[in-house]
Amino acid sequence: xxxxxxxxxxxxxxxxxxxxxxxxxxxxxxxxxxxxxxxxxxxxxxxxxxxxxxxxxxxxxxxxxxxxxxxxxxxxxxxxxxxxxxxxxxxxxxxxxxxxxxxxxxxxxxxxxxxxxxxxxxxxxxxxxxxxxxxxxxxxxxxxxxxxxxxxxxxxxxxxxxxxxxxxxxxxxxxxxxxxxxxxxxxxxxxxxxxxxxxxxxxxxxxxxxxxxxxxxxxxxxxxxxxxxxxxxxxxxxxxxxxxxxxxxxxxxxxxxxxxxxxx
Length: 264
Fold this sequence. Notes:
Layout: H1 3-18, E1 40-41, H2 64-76, E2 80-90, E3 93-104, E4 109-116, E5 119-125, E6 129-136, E7 139-146, H3 151-157, H4 161-168, E8 171-181, E9 184-194, E10 201-213, E11 218-229, E12 234-246, H5 256-263
Antiparallel strand pairs: 1-8, 2-3, 2-12, 3-4, 4-5, 5-6, 6-7, 8-9, 9-10, 10-11, 11-12
């Protein structure tokens, strides 16, 4: 598998080991979206009618680092919820990883989980402590420990900006249309050229898109690719990142937190 696909996988794996953030398979509270709200093309607006954040324009995404910086700046100062899904197949081997995070900066509460085959790690963090609920190979382990960083620092780190950067860096994204989701104006960018083929991986098909707001929030980015390795092994990969709530996110401690505290 090529370096970029490895990079995306590594980001999610590191998040799993860190044990900080989101709730896998959870429904969004009433009034929040789950990232699948239908979009409508805004015929009244053309690509020349909207404002663009640093790094983006009516032509496309020109500077990935600048776009990701604007995205991080917007999330750093707000409550947010994100979801990440990744599926990879290499020959007969496959892996699916789901990850989600809900963080309330005002309340200083964060809840999250990551799940893959045979393992699920859930966590809850407040201003002073982190609580973990790890299930692996049928065994469950609860743990409570003092947080090693301030809540504000963890809140900034958990936006998964490196993953957004990796996905947007897989190719050239060109601006296609102005759309509307939940009343917000977004520009839809399509993956026009995939740049990650190399001597070890030959891409046969790739697609992707990104939805970016005028304020710089990358509300969603998806990339998929399939091809063959140098030894002829078939490889496919799909990853998505979604901001499912922004601005007012409710976070409540899961029921298992009391058990974790009683065992500490």
